[in-house]
Amino acid sequence: MQIDGLALSGPRHILAFDSGIGGLGIARAIQALAPDICIDYLADTAIFPYGEQDDDFLIERIVSLLSQAIRRLQPQVVVVACNTASTLALEALRAAWPDMPFVGCVPPIRWAARITQTKVIGLLATRATVRRPYLSRLHALYAPECTLIAHAAPGLAGCAELAFRGQDVSDSTLLREIEGLFVHPDSNRLDVVGLGCTHYTFVLDRLRALSPPGLTWLDPAPAVAQHTCNLLAHLPQKTHAHPCAWFTALPDDQALFTHLKPYRFSAAVLWEDVNEVEASYYSPVIASP
C-alpha cells in the first residue's frame, strides 16, 4: 500500500491509548489504510472520563501507565488517541521516551480555519480541553481571524461509550450535550465544528443529523491515522502475534466485547494481569480474524 508516496507493506506494531473506547475510531482508520498493522489498545477505564480529572494527577498517571506499556509491549509507535491526554501529557511523554515516536490528537482548529467561509468555527470537547491554555494557543496560532465557539460537553463521551455498546442514547440527550454550540451570539454564522474528543466519532452521524443544515463536522481520526502510517512506512517490519485490547478496569457487561470483534484483537485483557496474559483472558475471548 502507498502511504503519501511511501510503500507500507507487511506488519508493523503500534500501541493506541485512550481513556475509553474513543481511540478505537483511530484504530479503525489505521486498519483501513494498512490492514497488516498490529494494534495493541490500552484503555484507562479505571478513571474514565479523563476530562473530569485533575491535570497533575493525569500527567503522572499517563506517563506511568504508558511507560509500563512501552516496556512490556515494545511498540514501534505510540498513538495517544485522546485529546485530553495529548494536550496535557505529550510533552512529558516525549521527554521520558525521546526515542519513541508519539502521535497525538489535538483539536482541529487549524483545519477548521482553513475551510470556514464565515470565519466562525466551533469545537466540541470535554471541559478539560476547553479550559486548557493549549486551546487558546491553537486559536491564536492557527485561527486568529476566526471566532471560536468552544463548547464543553461533559456527558457526550459517556453517550459515545453507550452508543458503541449498542445501547440507546436519545436525541434529546445528545441535543442537550451540543446545544451550547448554538446559543452563542455568532452561532448563526457557525459553519464548521471540529471534534475535540475521539469518543465523539461514534455519535458523529447522530450529531450531523441533529445539527443545523449546512454545518460541516470535522473528525481528525483519518488525519491521525495517515500520520501514523507515514511514520510506520520508515520503520522495519515487525510481527506481533497477539495484539490485545487492554483495560485498566473491565466493564461488567459483555456488550463492549461483542463490539470489539471487528478490530481484530486476540483478546480483551485486564491490564493489571499483563504479566500473566495467557491465563488472564477475559471471557469471552475475542477471536482472531
Automatic annotation (TrEMBL):
The keyword ATP-binding does not apply. It holds the Pfam family Asp_Glu_race. Pathway: Cell wall biogenesis; peptidoglycan biosynthesis. GO terms for biological process: cell wall organization; peptidoglycan biosynthetic process; regulation of cell shape. The active site is at C82 (proton donor/acceptor), C197 (proton donor/acceptor). It comes from the Bacteria. It is an enzyme of class 5 (isomerase). One of its GO terms (molecular function) is glutamate racemase activity. Keywords: Cell shape, Cell wall biogenesis/degradation, Isomerase, Peptidoglycan synthesis. Its EC number is 5.1.1.3. It catalyses: L-glutamate = D-glutamate. The keyword Cell wall biogenesis/degradation applies. Substrate binds at D18, S19, Y50, G51, N83, T84, T198, H199. Belongs to the aspartate/glutamate racemases family. Provides the (R)-glutamate required for cell wall biosynthesis. This is Glutamate racemase. It comes from Acetobacter oryzoeni. The lineage of its organism: Bacteria, Pseudomonadati, Pseudomonadota, Alphaproteobacteria, Acetobacterales.
